[in-house]
Amino acid sequence: MTKNILINGNMGYIGPPLTKHLMSSKEDYCLHGFDTGYFAHCLTTKDGLPERQLKAQYFGDIRNYPNQIMDGIDAVVHLAAISNDPIGNAYEQVTAEINIEASVEIARAAKAAGVKRFVFASSCSVYGAGPDKACDEKAPLNPVTAYARSKIAMEEALAELADDDFKVTCLRFATACGWSDRLRLDLVLNDFVASAIATGTITILSDGTPWRPLIHVDDMARAIEWAIQSDADTPFLALNTGSDRWNYQIRDLAHAVADIIPGVDVSINQDAMPDKRTYKVDFSKFSELAQGYTPQVSLEDAIRGLQAGLTAVGFKDAEFRASNLMRLNMLNSHQNSGMLNKELFWV
Ligand SMILES: NC(=O)c1ccc[n+]([C@@H]2O[C@H](COP(=O)([O-])OP(=O)(O)OC[C@H]3O[C@@H](n4cnc5c(N)ncnc54)[C@H](O)[C@@H]3O)[C@@H](O)[C@H]2O)c1
After folding, report:
1. Which of 8, 83, 142, 344 has the fewest CB atoms within 10 Å, measured from its CB?
2. 10 with 2: CB under 8 angstroms?
3. What positions does the domain NAD-dependent epimerase/dehydratase occupy (predicted)?
4. What is the dihedral of CA 322, 325, 326, 328, to 10 degrees?
5. Cα of 275 to ligand 1 centre, how many Å?
6. How far, in Å, is the centroid of ligand 1 from the Cα of 83?
7. CA 240 distance to own-chain centroid
8. Domains of the chain and any CATH numbers
9. Residue 202 has pLDDT above 70, yes or no
10. Distance from the alpha carbon of residue 135 to the mean position of ligand 1, in angstroms
């Protein structure tokens, strides 16, 4: 039977690969999207708008959400958010308004509209500066940024709303990487591949030892599909989402890129102070529950996918960290041109 899925925040980095994945699934999904379009034109594809695959695309701000679009929807996938630490630091109040207040209201309205499943894109950043051992879901939460605090607040609100008729899955994603038709370069592996291609070097500002769990966007899409269709009997789940094999040290990521892209130098700052932002995550519960939907992409394929995609669009910009492929730059640029106000509403 056709399942109607509404994806809030479908026009960002994860939305396009998620759309592609769900449309190629053996299940029959009918997709609807809602987005304010901050990054709508940041396309890194020549294939046209990814949203053409949807049944309907709605434009608007989740702070003024038209609840009626949830009529007849079976599952809501909630991606819409201020989606990283640098933007959360620059727009702390807006982060609380979008990521908590408006998002909680949408979850309440979804439940009232009879939506059966709510899938929330949470983050492993809820663990903050982690202890030495890998954090499982029982590890203490230690958020160190407005972004991470917003994810915890939303999870807590969802835990209260969840019941047998409104099942909630919070996927605590590792750091994303990999090719998307709306690529971002403000993510560690994507940055390394872009830097390797544009400059022939990868410069690591730390000593390279910090641990980071990563997940490919296609594997995020697989996890979201699992959460949409899973018949778990628990009303509420908060799950680390990634793979134990994808806990990497930063220097290993850099060397993996240099092994694949010829002629790349890796420079590591041997004198750097130890970086406190190091953490490993235990993904064993996810691999136990989500059999058939756990991560499949290899690191090598992730790097080759980024290399092929960037090459296909003629990417050569050595100054890419000042470009609109970094989300914070894009939002600042909309403001400087008078299109967005300080609250990130379109003027
Ligand atoms: N990328 C990662 O590493 C990562 C890791 C863990 C979790 N997540 C979470 O996954 C989700 C999607 O991430 P992404 O990388 O695609 O982010 P993104 O910033 O690329 O996309 C977010 C989308 O939400 C939309 N949006 C933001 N505020 C909105 C508002 N007020 N009204 C309507 N639409 C709004 C934006 O226009 C954008 O299209 C986010 O919730 C993010 O926190 C991402």
Report:
1. 142
2. no
3. 5-231
4. 100
5. 26
6. 5
7. 13
8. 3-184+214-247+280-298 (3.40.50.720)
9. yes
10. 24
